[in-house]
Amino acid sequence: MATVEPIAALGLYVHLPWCTRKCPYCDFNSHAASDLPELSYISALLADLDHDQARITGRPLESIFIGGGTPSLFSVSAIASLLGGIRERVDLAPDCEITLEANPGSAEADRFAGYLAAGVNRLSIGVQSFDDAALKSIGRIHDARTAHLAVETAQAAGMERINIDLMYGLPGQSRRAALADVEQALEHGVSHLSHYELTIEPNTLFQRFPPPRPDEDALWAMHESSLALIESAGLRRYEISAYSRPGAECRHNLNYWRFGDYLGIGAGAHGKLTRGASGVIERSVKHRHPRRYLAALGGGDHEARRGPVAAAELPLEFMLNAARLLGGFSEELFEARTGLPISVISAPLAQAEERGLIRRKRGSILPTERGTQFLNDFLILFEPQSPAPPEAAKRAPVDRDGGPPVL
């Protein structure tokens, strides 16, 4: 194996697992609660970071993403304590991107202004829809008026970098209704939009009781029409479900998609680190349930598991992330981030090119429109000893803003 290029900077994902009520489509590690253990949980998060510090000596944080759950349920003082504690332990890049996820139902002017003063410089608002009936159909606790007010409140508080999360393919949704959601989001003039299809995930209420949803043709029409509308407003699609104005891309997510390193602290959070001397890539997972997580940290046991990624799995691990980028990736990046020569994936790349899923240009691998649409057909080529992909193509799953780091 070649030497893995050292990655100086890294990201930090912080998981706050509580929400007011769990949505029927949600498969994230979230737990409904009315009484948040703010003090004990913030202390546990910082103790968690203390355990991981030895592995990141001298490496500044380029980004912090506080996800959930609903992090905006936490008070300003709790978020300030969290960010203050992180700064005491780890160096932050001067322009460190600090994102906090917010639910429209917890939007308050003083709260958003307080988050900004504490260091949060990017807000990701889980709107999902601006239609009251659609919101009710997916179990959201806010209405359209509250969603609009949340974005306006964040802007009035001085938050310049705002992402709106939107979903399409909602129960009973028409193409016209899906486009109306996009139009209303664009009217707010935000710099970033995440637009993704509602999927029915295992172990969710919607899996047990599937709602009526648009068919495949209708879903594709929603996607194509929305894509054209978003790009006509000056937002560029740079990842399967992410759009931004120039320079407003989510740096935290770009680090994931470029197979960069990141720490994960909090219940169910996972991390990926490259060990400098050996180049071994390790993944770690924290205890999933908040009670177990808090108890484990109290006993000095902060991880559920940690282990190296096998060399045979690295090509697929890399592609699961980098193949989501519309701008593709370079052969050099693959070699630097995996420690493997590009020759180890010559065969699957040739197959992908033959099937019209990618094109190669001056050392770069670029997805075609077909490759983006049928990402799973591309990914399956990199599974260790994978069989030939099925003829029936399946579109790639998509994630919300900040999606990957929680089990």
State the secondary-structure class. alpha/beta
Question: Gyration radius, to the nearest Å?
Answer: 21 Å
- Tell me how many strands there are: 17
Q: Which range best describes the helical content: under 10%, 10-25%, 25-40%, 40-55%, 55-70% or over 70%?
A: 25-40%
- Largest pleated sheet: 9 strands, mixed
Low-confidence stretches: 386-398
Strand order of the largest sheet: 9-10-8-7-6-5-4-1-11
What do we call the CATH homologous superfamily of the largest domain? Answer: Aldolase class I
Please indicate the count of domains. 2
Supply the number of helical segments: 15
CATH topology of the largest domain: TIM Barrel
Give the averaged pLDDT, no decimals. 91
The CATH architecture designation of the largest domain is: Alpha-Beta Barrel
Percent of residues in β-strands: 15-25%
At the first level of CATH, what is the class of the largest domain? Alpha Beta
Terminal Cα span: 29 Å
Shape: globular
